[in-house]
Protein backbone atom coordinates (compact mmCIF):
# COMPACT_ATOMS: atom_id res chain seq x y z
CA UNK A 1 0.00 0.00 0.00
CA UNK A 2 1.51 3.40 -0.97
CA UNK A 3 2.15 5.88 1.86
CA UNK A 4 -0.62 8.39 2.48
CA UNK A 5 0.02 11.95 1.40
CA UNK A 6 -0.30 14.58 4.13
CA UNK A 7 -3.37 16.84 3.79
CA UNK A 8 -2.71 19.98 1.76
CA UNK A 9 -1.86 22.98 3.88
CA UNK A 10 -3.90 26.07 3.29
CA UNK A 11 -1.77 28.88 1.92
CA UNK A 12 -1.33 31.51 4.62
CA UNK A 13 -2.35 35.02 3.54
CA UNK A 14 0.01 37.86 4.48
CA UNK A 15 -1.26 40.01 7.32
CA UNK A 16 -2.00 43.16 5.34
CA UNK A 17 -3.99 44.66 8.24
CA UNK A 18 -0.87 44.79 10.40
CA UNK A 19 1.16 46.09 7.45
CA UNK A 20 -1.24 48.95 6.67
CA UNK A 21 -1.46 49.84 10.38
CA UNK A 22 2.33 49.97 10.63
CA UNK A 23 2.48 52.21 7.55
CA UNK A 24 -0.12 54.57 9.05
CA UNK A 25 1.74 54.98 12.34
CA UNK A 26 4.80 57.12 12.91
CA UNK A 27 7.80 54.80 12.87
CA UNK A 28 9.80 54.04 15.98
CA UNK A 29 13.28 55.05 14.87
CA UNK A 30 16.15 52.86 15.90
CA UNK A 31 19.88 53.12 15.40
CA UNK A 32 19.46 53.14 11.61
CA UNK A 33 16.95 56.00 11.44
CA UNK A 34 13.54 56.06 9.81
CA UNK A 35 12.79 53.34 7.24
CA UNK A 36 11.65 54.42 3.76
CA UNK A 37 7.90 55.01 3.45
CA UNK A 38 5.82 53.63 0.58
CA UNK A 39 4.25 56.10 -1.83
CA UNK A 40 0.51 56.70 -2.26
CA UNK A 41 0.16 54.18 -5.12
CA UNK A 42 1.86 51.46 -3.07
CA UNK A 43 -0.28 52.23 -0.01
CA UNK A 44 -3.42 51.96 -2.15
CA UNK A 45 -2.25 48.61 -3.54
CA UNK A 46 -1.54 47.23 -0.05
CA UNK A 47 -4.91 48.54 1.15
CA UNK A 48 -6.76 46.77 -1.68
CA UNK A 49 -4.93 43.52 -0.91
CA UNK A 50 -5.77 43.94 2.78
CA UNK A 51 -9.49 44.40 2.07
CA UNK A 52 -9.57 41.43 -0.29
CA UNK A 53 -7.71 39.17 2.16
CA UNK A 54 -9.94 40.25 5.05
CA UNK A 55 -13.18 39.64 3.13
CA UNK A 56 -11.96 36.13 2.23
CA UNK A 57 -10.50 35.25 5.64
CA UNK A 58 -12.32 32.55 7.66
CA UNK A 59 -12.83 35.02 10.50
CA UNK A 60 -12.37 38.71 11.20
CA UNK A 61 -9.49 39.89 13.36
CA UNK A 62 -9.45 43.45 14.70
CA UNK A 63 -6.00 45.04 14.53
CA UNK A 64 -5.19 47.92 16.88
CA UNK A 65 -2.66 50.72 16.67
CA UNK A 66 0.04 51.29 19.29
CA UNK A 67 -2.28 53.71 21.10
CA UNK A 68 -5.08 51.08 21.12
CA UNK A 69 -7.22 52.69 18.41
CA UNK A 70 -8.83 50.68 15.63
CA UNK A 71 -6.37 49.96 12.83
CA UNK A 72 -6.35 47.88 9.66
CA UNK A 73 -9.59 48.16 7.68
CA UNK A 74 -10.91 50.82 10.08
CA UNK A 75 -8.24 53.39 9.24
CA UNK A 76 -9.81 56.42 7.54
CA UNK A 77 -6.44 57.79 6.38
CA UNK A 78 -3.06 56.19 5.76
CA UNK A 79 -0.35 58.81 5.16
CA UNK A 80 -2.56 60.88 2.86
CA UNK A 81 -4.39 57.95 1.25
CA UNK A 82 -8.07 58.02 2.26
CA UNK A 83 -10.07 54.95 1.21
CA UNK A 84 -13.53 55.69 -0.22
CA UNK A 85 -15.00 53.02 2.04
CA UNK A 86 -13.94 50.39 4.54
CA UNK A 87 -15.43 46.98 3.60
CA UNK A 88 -16.16 44.56 6.43
CA UNK A 89 -16.94 40.82 6.23
CA UNK A 90 -20.31 40.95 8.01
CA UNK A 91 -21.70 37.61 6.81
CA UNK A 92 -25.19 36.19 7.11
CA UNK A 93 -27.06 32.92 6.99
CA UNK A 94 -27.88 32.04 3.36
CA UNK A 95 -30.88 34.04 2.09
CA UNK A 96 -31.47 35.49 5.58
CA UNK A 97 -30.73 38.66 7.53
CA UNK A 98 -29.37 36.67 10.50
CA UNK A 99 -25.65 37.16 11.02
CA UNK A 100 -23.36 34.14 11.15
CA UNK A 101 -21.00 33.79 14.15
CA UNK A 102 -18.19 35.17 11.94
CA UNK A 103 -20.43 38.03 10.80
CA UNK A 104 -21.29 38.83 14.41
CA UNK A 105 -17.57 39.04 15.22
CA UNK A 106 -17.07 41.58 12.42
CA UNK A 107 -20.14 43.54 13.57
CA UNK A 108 -18.74 43.52 17.13
CA UNK A 109 -15.49 45.02 15.84
CA UNK A 110 -17.53 47.72 14.07
CA UNK A 111 -19.42 48.38 17.32
CA UNK A 112 -16.19 48.62 19.34
CA UNK A 113 -14.57 50.98 16.83
CA UNK A 114 -17.61 53.27 16.53
CA UNK A 115 -17.67 53.47 20.35
CA UNK A 116 -13.92 54.02 20.69
CA UNK A 117 -13.83 56.78 18.09
CA UNK A 118 -17.01 58.38 19.50
CA UNK A 119 -18.58 58.89 16.09
CA UNK A 120 -21.70 61.05 15.87
CA UNK A 121 -22.70 59.82 12.41
CA UNK A 122 -22.01 56.53 10.65
CA UNK A 123 -22.95 55.68 7.05
CA UNK A 124 -23.12 51.98 6.12
CA UNK A 125 -23.85 50.37 2.77
CA UNK A 126 -24.91 46.74 2.29
CA UNK A 127 -23.91 44.58 -0.67
CA UNK A 128 -24.97 41.16 -1.96
CA UNK A 129 -23.65 38.71 -4.52
CA UNK A 130 -24.98 38.62 -8.09
CA UNK A 131 -27.36 35.67 -7.56
CA UNK A 132 -31.06 36.55 -7.83
CA UNK A 133 -32.99 39.55 -9.10
CA UNK A 134 -32.13 43.19 -8.50
CA UNK A 135 -35.26 43.71 -6.39
CA UNK A 136 -34.63 40.61 -4.26
CA UNK A 137 -31.03 41.61 -3.53
CA UNK A 138 -31.94 45.23 -2.77
CA UNK A 139 -34.54 44.04 -0.25
CA UNK A 140 -32.10 41.52 1.25
CA UNK A 141 -29.34 44.11 1.66
CA UNK A 142 -31.82 46.50 3.35
CA UNK A 143 -32.88 43.79 5.83
CA UNK A 144 -29.29 42.82 6.53
CA UNK A 145 -28.28 46.43 7.15
CA UNK A 146 -31.22 46.78 9.55
CA UNK A 147 -29.79 43.79 11.46
CA UNK A 148 -26.41 45.53 11.75
CA UNK A 149 -28.06 48.77 12.90
CA UNK A 150 -30.09 46.90 15.54
CA UNK A 151 -26.87 45.21 16.73
CA UNK A 152 -25.08 48.56 17.03
CA UNK A 153 -27.98 50.24 18.83
CA UNK A 154 -28.38 47.31 21.25
CA UNK A 155 -24.64 47.64 21.94
CA UNK A 156 -25.07 51.23 23.08
CA UNK A 157 -24.34 53.21 19.92
CA UNK A 158 -26.20 56.53 19.98
CA UNK A 159 -24.69 57.94 16.79
CA UNK A 160 -26.91 58.62 13.80
CA UNK A 161 -26.72 55.50 11.60
CA UNK A 162 -27.49 55.99 7.91
CA UNK A 163 -28.16 52.83 5.88
CA UNK A 164 -27.67 52.61 2.11
CA UNK A 165 -28.76 49.26 0.64
CA UNK A 166 -26.95 48.59 -2.63
CA UNK A 167 -28.02 45.01 -3.41
CA UNK A 168 -25.88 43.72 -6.26
CA UNK A 169 -25.45 47.12 -7.92
CA UNK A 170 -21.83 47.65 -6.79
CA UNK A 171 -19.88 44.39 -7.09
CA UNK A 172 -16.46 44.29 -5.47
CA UNK A 173 -13.78 45.42 -7.93
CA UNK A 174 -11.24 42.61 -8.07
CA UNK A 175 -7.85 43.39 -9.61
CA UNK A 176 -7.50 39.91 -11.13
CA UNK A 177 -10.75 37.87 -11.21
CA UNK A 178 -8.80 34.87 -12.56
CA UNK A 179 -7.11 34.54 -9.16
CA UNK A 180 -10.44 33.69 -7.48
CA UNK A 181 -13.07 30.98 -7.69
CA UNK A 182 -16.69 31.99 -8.43
CA UNK A 183 -17.53 31.38 -4.75
CA UNK A 184 -14.71 33.69 -3.64
CA UNK A 185 -16.03 36.40 -5.98
CA UNK A 186 -19.48 35.96 -4.41
CA UNK A 187 -17.91 36.20 -0.95
CA UNK A 188 -16.15 39.45 -1.89
CA UNK A 189 -19.46 40.86 -3.11
CA UNK A 190 -21.23 40.05 0.18
CA UNK A 191 -20.10 42.80 2.52
CA UNK A 192 -20.99 45.82 4.61
CA UNK A 193 -19.04 48.98 3.94
CA UNK A 194 -18.32 51.72 6.43
CA UNK A 195 -18.59 54.62 3.99
CA UNK A 196 -18.50 57.72 6.10
CA UNK A 197 -17.97 58.72 9.73
CA UNK A 198 -18.29 62.03 11.52
CA UNK A 199 -16.87 62.79 14.95
SSE arrangement:
Elements: H1 16-24, H2 40-56, E1 86-88, H3 101-117, E2 121-127, H4 134-154, E3 160-167, H5 182-189, E4 191-198
Parallel strand pairs: 2-3
Antiparallel strand pairs: 1-4, 2-4
Helix pairs in contact: 1-2
Strand order, largest beta sheet: 1-4-2-3
How many discrete structural domains?
1
SSE run: HHEHEHEHE
Instruction: Determine the number of helices (DSSP H or I, runs of at least 4 residues).
Output: 5
Q: Give the fraction of residues assigned to helices.
A: 25-40%
Overview of the structural elements:
- With 199 residues, this protein is of the alpha+beta class.
- The protein has a single domain, classed as OmpA-like domain (60s Ribosomal Protein L30, Chain: A, 2-Layer Sandwich), CATH 3.30.1330.
- The chain is 36% helix and 13% strand.
- It contains 5 helices and 4 strands, in the order ααβαβαβαβ.
- It has helices at 16-24, 40-56, 101-117, 134-154, 182-189; strands at 86-88, 121-127, 160-167, 191-198.
- The chain has a 4-stranded mixed beta sheet with strand order 1-4-2-3.
- α1 (16-24) runs antiparallel to α2.
- The protein starts with 15 loop residues before the first helix and ends with a strand.
